[in-house]
Specification:
Radius of gyration: 17 Å
Bound molecules: nicotinamide-adenine-dinucleotide
Low-confidence stretches: none
Structural class: alpha/beta
Strand order of the largest sheet: 3-2-1-4-5-6-7
Shape: globular
CATH class: Alpha Beta
Number of strands: 7
Number of helices: 8
Helix content: 40-55%
Length: 254
C-alpha cells in the first residue's frame, strides 16, 4: 500500500542529491510531486523520470533566496496539483572548510541567505497553501552539524543551527493549526555537496575517510533521506511528531 497516496508535495533542491532522493521516495509512495530547483533543467529531468516510472510529477525552476520566485513556484504547485499539503525545504549550499582567521564575513551572509533565510522564506511562501490543506506538514533538511559542531565550517554550521531553531520554533507556532514541522538531520551524504566539504574535490580515499568516521561505517544516501522523509510526511505514521530533529546519520550524533 502506497504510504503517501493522494498527498501533494513540493521539494526544493530536488534537482540533485537528497532532494532528488526525497522526490523519488515520495513519488514511489504515491504522492504527486513538484520538483523545484535553482537548476530548472535538473528539476524538469527528474520530473520526467518520475512520470516515466508512472508517477505524477512536475519540474519547476525557483530560487529559495527570492520570495517572488518562491511565490511563483507555489502558484505553479496550486495550478498543477490543486492543493499542497507538504513542503520539503531541502535546498541548500555547502561550504569548503576554512579557519576562523580566513573566514570572510561575506561567506557567513551567503550561508545564512540560502541555508537559513531561504528555508524561512520557503515556509512563508508555502503557508497560505498549507493552511488550506488537510494534514499539512513541513519538513526541513537541516544537518547533523546543527547538533554536533565540526571545525572550520562556521558559516554552514551556524546557518544550519539557526535553521534547527527555526524549525522547532515554527513547530510550536503552527501546532494549534495542526500543521506539523519536522527536521531531517543527515550526516555526510553521497551527494555532489560532499566535494565542497572535502575542499572542492572528493577522492575515493576522502569518501572512505568520511564513511569510516561514522559509527555505521557508511555514507548517507539520497534513498536513506528519502525514506526518512516519507515517514515524517505520513500523516498516519508521524501523526504526533512535530518539532522532531530526526538524525539520518549512521550514528554520527550519538
Ligand atoms: N551532503 C551532505 O553531506 C549533507 C549533510 C547534511 C545536510 N545536508 C543538506 O541536505 C540538503 C541537500 O543537500 P545535498 O547534499 O543533496 O546537495 P546537492 O548539492 O546535491 O543538492 C542541493 C540542491 O539545491 C539546489 N539549490 C541550491 N541553492 C538553491 C536555491 N537558492 N534555490 C533553489 N535550489 C537551490 C541546487 O541546485 C542543488 O540541486 C542541503 O540543505 C544540505 O545542506 C547535506
Amino acid at each position: 500500500m502506497a504510504r503517501l497516496l493522494g498527498r501533494t508535495a513540493i521539494v526544493t533542491g530536488a534537482g540533485s542529491g537528497f532532494g532528488a532522493g526525497i522526490a523519488r521516495a515520495f513519488s514511489r509512495e504515491g504522492a504527486s510531486v513538484v520538483a523545484a530547483d535553482l537548476d530548472a533543467a535538473s528539476a524538469a529531468k527528474l520530473a520526467e523520470e518520475l512520470c516515466a516510472e508512472g508517477g505524477h510529477a512536475f519540474g519547476v525552476g525557483l530560487d529559495v533566496t527570492d520570495r517572488e520566485s518562491l511565490d511563483a513556484g507555489i502558484a505553479f504547485c496550486r495550478e498543477k496539483l490543486g492543493s499542497l499539503n507538504t513542503l520539503v525545504a531541502n535546498a541548500g549550499i555547502g561550504q569548503r572548510p576554512v579557519s576562523i582567521s580566513d573566514t570572510p564575513v561575506g561567506e557567513l551572509h551567503r550561508q545564512f541567505e540560502t541555508n537559513s533565510v531561504g528555508v524561512v522564506q520557503s515556509c512563508q511562501a508555502a503557508l497560505p497553501a498549507l493552511r488550506t490543506a488537510h494534514d499539512a506538514s513541513i519538513i526541513v533538511t537541516v544537518s547533523g552539524i546543527a547538533l554536533v559542531p565540526r571545525p572550520q565550517l562556521y558559516g554552514y554550521g551556524m546557518a544550519k543551527a539557526a535553521t534547527a531553531y527555526f524549525m522547532k520554533s515554527l513547530a510550536l507556532e503552527l501546532a494549534p493549526e495542526r500543521i506539523r514541522v519536522n527536521g531531517l538531520f543527515p550526516a555526510v551524504g553521497e551527494t555532489p555537496m560532499l566535494a565542497e566539504f572535502a575542499g572542492g574535490s572528493l577522492s575515493d580515499e576522502d569518501a572512505a575517510a568520511f564513511a569510516g568516521a561514522l559509527p555505521l561505517g557508511r555514507l548517507i544516501t539520497p534513498e536513506d533521506v528519502g525514506n526518512a522523509a516519507v515517514f515524517l510526511a505520513s500523516p498516519k505514521e508521524a501523526a504526533t511528531l512535530t518539532g522532531c530533529a530526526l538524525p539520518v546519520d549512521a550514528g554520527r550524533c550519538v
